[in-house]
Amino acid sequence: MLKSVLSGLVLTVLSVVALGGGMVSGAQAQVQGAPPSLDIYAASPTVELMALSPSGDLIARIVVTGEQRAIAVTHMNRAEHVFAASIGEAKVRDLRWIGEGKVLIISSQTRAIHLLGVPRSELYFGMILDLETQKLTRVLDRTQDVLPVLYGGASVRETDQGPTLFVRGFNVETGQSDLHRVDLSSGRGRSVVPMDRETDDYVLDGEGVVIATARYVERSGRWTMMLPNGRRFREAWTTDAPVDTPTFLGMGRTPRTVVISADRPDLAAADPESETQANLFEVNVDTGEWTKLPFAHHPDALWHHPRTRLLIGGSRVEEDGVRYEFIDPTSASRWRSIERAFEGKAPQLVSWSADQKRILVFSDIGESGLYQLVDFDRRTADALAFTYPDIPPEQVGAVRHVTYDAADGLKIPGYLTLPPGVETPEKLPLIVLAHGGPASRDVMGFDWWAQALASRGYAVLQPNFRGSEGYTRAFLEAGYGEWGRKMQTDLSDGVRWLTEQGIVDPDRVCIVGASYGGYAAMAGLTLDRGVYRCAVAVAGVSDLRRMVNWEARQERSRNNQTVRYWNRFMGAARLNDRALDALSPAYLADTVDKPLLLIHGRDDTVVAIEQSRVMAEAMRRAGKPVELIELEGEDHWLSRADTRQQMLRETVRFLEANNPAR
């Protein structure tokens, strides 16, 4: 048995708790000579989400078989299942408890509401599972004139009426998007706070009372914080924010404070670890006083107490995993114990009981992903479920953090995944796997796409090029105006560095990516030629001007926050700036001399499928080698396992034909 020290206690992996779907078994230790099937990598995780009940006695989870999902609840003390029911092919996005007896399931669908002029988009829905009645109820069901669609997030609070759910819902008669208290039995909502479309955000206290709201005027870019003034709200602070708006981040350390991320140079110098000029402040809603929060490292996520909802800490994604910093002493002590017990595994906090004595953690360093339940009273950690049980640790390629110099000297961080079993890489074929965003990032841990390619004999480089999030403001801003320029050469600079190290063969390199990464794949054959033997672009942008114009039509405004965001990264002076054509692969198809594979979901509401169709047509007109594969029923995020598997199979087929690994 594995033993380690947990704050003076013995943490022992004593048992395996079978939760169904991804259960840990002896087969996990068996190593096959051949790598797992590609379909195993691209399948949905067998356990998609988990959450602990307030008592810590119950675990809810979403179990996946093929495209079918089920909600299941297990009583840990009795080791018995108390509920299981299919929820069909829903795309589940969140799972949380409403008190001890009910579970909230949030899912999404790609739909349009033509009567209201809502274009095809990703709409979010809520369901409430009642463990006592064993029934599932739709949130906002039968609420007069209100669509049963979630307008923004959902909040759970402990009110004088018990555990309560609050959501915003759109009223088709008034055009309002009021905050509703939801009846947990019927799903019906009752408006408790009026809110219009310019109400950008709000904060609830621990008892469900709104203690702050924000207004944002899209056209002017004006953002205003509203604080209580008797039964009304007053304008407490206003700022111009055409792109980067201030953000509420829940309650502060006391019941009458809220946390806000905002640029206030009059109160504090810009945090060098922040990606914007913003700092994290705590604002007293009664006095309006601002106080800078005492985090040693600027967090990119905050943690609130599971019972009181007061701020207790934050976390930040770093090179080797997630760093947690708790300002609440009890939380800090418990997490230090877990980090010691799981040393080298970079554990991630998933969920915890109200008394924080049971904590659900997840790790995927050197393995395909494992949920474990830490019980401080029993002094044990129980292995619950692997996310990919058919991929044993021995088949997980080693992931190394790397840093190299871009042509202008900027340090570019990233990750290199090696084929399983390779310890001393030399002259390997390489796939550059570019992330989306571009203000996103790759992280340490199990990446199914990178691991699938590595399993076929490729080294996989995932650069966090300039403009990626999770580093500093200077690093993010280094990407402004560099779409298709230095953001692109940051990728090929990584190829050159790996070549100099003797790790890869420069004559056997292809580029693959999705979303912005799909653009980068196409740009690798048009704007940064001579580096790649082939490219695979998934849901990529081929015509920048067309994309930004489409965004303006979607928002029904030529001057909106989304257009301003894209223009900043692309370096456009205005909407419909023809200078973007020089950066658009669809206008450069005649320069391509290597094969290109385009893959796109027909239900994509982020990058329209016409972007791939336009590129395919441009390539055909130019007499260039191109394939276009359209994924039926797939969205931008490759949410369906069957089409994700199709994407991966076609990608590997294309790579092996044009850049064989062996």
Nutshell version of this structure?
The protein has 662 residues and is of the alpha+beta class. Helix content is 16%, strand content 37%.
Features:
single chain, 662 residues, alpha+beta, eight-stranded mixed sheet, four-stranded antiparallel sheet, 10 helices, globular
Helix count equals 10
Uncertain ranges? 1-32
Gross morphology: globular
Number of strands: 37
Q: Please give the order of strands in the largest beta sheet.
A: 30-31-33-32-34-35-36-37
Strand fraction: 35-45%
Biggest sheet architecture: 8 strands, mixed
Give the proportion of residues in helices. Answer: 10-25%
Average pLDDT metric = 91
Radius of gyration of CA atoms, rounded to a whole number: 25 Å
Q: Report, as a whole number of angstroms, the end-to-end distance.
A: 40 Å
Structural class: alpha+beta
Write up what this structure looks like:
The protein has 662 residues and is an alpha+beta fold. It has 10 helices and 37 strands. Strands 30-31-33-32-34-35-36-37 form an 8-stranded mixed sheet, sandwiched between helices. A 4-stranded antiparallel sheet has the order 3-4-5-6, with no helix packed on it. The protein has a 4-stranded antiparallel sheet with strand order 7-8-9-10, with no helix packed on it. The longest helix is centred in the C-terminal third of the chain and has 18 residues, at 641-658. The protein is globular, with a radius of gyration of 25 Å. Residues 1-32 have low confidence and may be disordered.
